[in-house]
Amino acid sequence: MNIGIGLWELFVVLFYIVIMAIPVIFIIWLVKTMGRIEKSLGRIEAKLEQLAQR
What we know:
Layout: H1 2-53
């Protein structure tokens, strides 16, 4: 009986860790993605400037 409660508590703790980790992982992914988008926009902007100069 005691082992069963221990496993259940472990499961609950892991569940809470996952819930806490999801927003952190999402924010890290968002920051990385924003960096990529910013680089892509920078390239597009440079191309548009080159076209405008011609």
